[in-house]
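User: My instructor asked us to take a sequence, write out its structure as tokens, and then describe one feature of it. I'm not sure where to start. Here is the sequence I was given:
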Amino acid sequence: MTVAEVIRRNGTDPAVSARDFLLFDDRRWTHAEYYAESIRWARLFLELRDPDRPLHVAVLLDNIPEYLFAFGGAALSGATIVGVNNTRRGAGLVRDLGHTDCQLLVTEPRHCELLAEVVPELEIPDERILVTRRWEECEPLPFGRDLDQACAEVGERLGAAFEEDPQVPVDAATRFCLLFTSGTTAAPKAVNIGHGRMISTGEFIGGMMQVGPDDTGYLAMPLFHASSQQCGFMPALLQGARLGLIRKFSKSQFLPDLRRYGVTYFNYTGKPLSYILTTARRPDDADNPLRVCYGNEASHRIAAEFAERYGCRVIDGFGASEGGFGIARSPDDPPGSVGLPPDNVKALRPDGSECPPAELDAEGRITNPDEAIGEIVNTAGVGKFEGYYENEEATRERTRNGMYWSGDFGYRDRAGYLYFTGRGLDWIRVDGENFLAKPIEEALLRHPKIYLASVYAVPDVSAGDRVMATIVVADDFEVDGEELYRFLVAQSDFSPKWLPTYVRIGRDVPMTPSNKILVRELRRQKFRPEATADPILWLERGDARYRPFTEADYETVRAGLASAGRDNLLEL
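Assistant: Let's start with the prediction itself. The structure tokens for your sequence are:
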């Protein structure tokens, strides 16, 4: 099947067509109405297209109904949707749109000022920038056209003249969307996603969550991300179910939204479960319709606490947006592991040889990290990965020797369980000893009031590194420096050299739109007072408690780094 066939089926089958599909604030669209909107957008795309170029449609929107209408329009017109990260700016935004050969752009007034800065550099003419104003008012467009006129043009073209399905032939191999990677280490790559993969992933994830026609999904993650596209939108579409849509994720609105929309399943990516858990617990938290969540990056403790508090099941998986492999974790798996992978998923050295199993000491610490940690690879093939758009070099690197090399690193224990150690081998070196950040993060997350933790290296006065941690705690919790120190040193598997010298109490942590901590930005900010207003605790050598890190302390540390010729590291 194709996405187009599913939309047509839902829109014309009397058993499905009159059922609600999309809920947004107080508005509702049935499956038949969604089909009609999709037809209008498909016809608009076809009317405006340049037939000599690929029909690639960029979407620069928050989570509003037009995003899903554009999905439907792309499916029926044979177009390719390019979901644009709405935090991209300047040259990065121009590069993303140019690299993916976008000839149309759908946006809304709140993003027009951003576009105005780069319109002269875009290959998309003004008349192919489609502005929808249904959900907000604003001043005239800042790049040469009157907003009212532009919106009126879009409205007229979406009118009654576009009632006939264009019936453009598509098949399972037709490209449905281009999905950008996170771009944390290089320019984002665009992953090819065909209609067939959209269907098969939606069926698989929907099956795990047991989504049926009476379910309601909750689209709170950004729609340019694979999670919302394949794990939120597709299961509901395939089952003729419903979707509750919100513009942006909000931890305070999560529970009210569950009740308002009657949400039964929730897809997530990154750390939203952790953020939701920082809110004050209420006795009626479990009084909601939610029964299952599916996503990634929730620790065993976070998943268990969320399931208990909200009365639902949490299925946390591990895999890649490219589709090279996926692992679903079981509640009985060892804490810290991402599950028991099939035999074909291994940790390999760069030469393709398999890493030996990890050896653990009596406290559970890995004693052979240099030998046991390798890149996580699907040795049986490339899974569902369909390659990167216009980037053969990156595709070859990801699929060398006929295998899928994920770029993620980890190790397997003697029982075969897989442990993720990071998206690179970024070692921290303290007093001559090398270690990874992940075990320190896991130890911090054992604290019942710490819900997020990111650990990274900052410069030491003499040589090497000091450990710094940024933590996010429950809203009603005040961190006590003495208690935090006692908690960490009481962990049986915690090395004294792992003790963070600096602990930032995150109030305004830099995050990606998909709720992942921007570690590179934390590394840049370090403990500089001008870089963050968050409170920082400091553990001086020989102390047995953390105390507030003051501007006078910073000047002392900076002077020490300067005397060692290392103060330039503060700005890196």
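For the description part of your assignment, you could build on this observation: The mean pLDDT is 92. Try explaining in your own words what that tells you about the chain.
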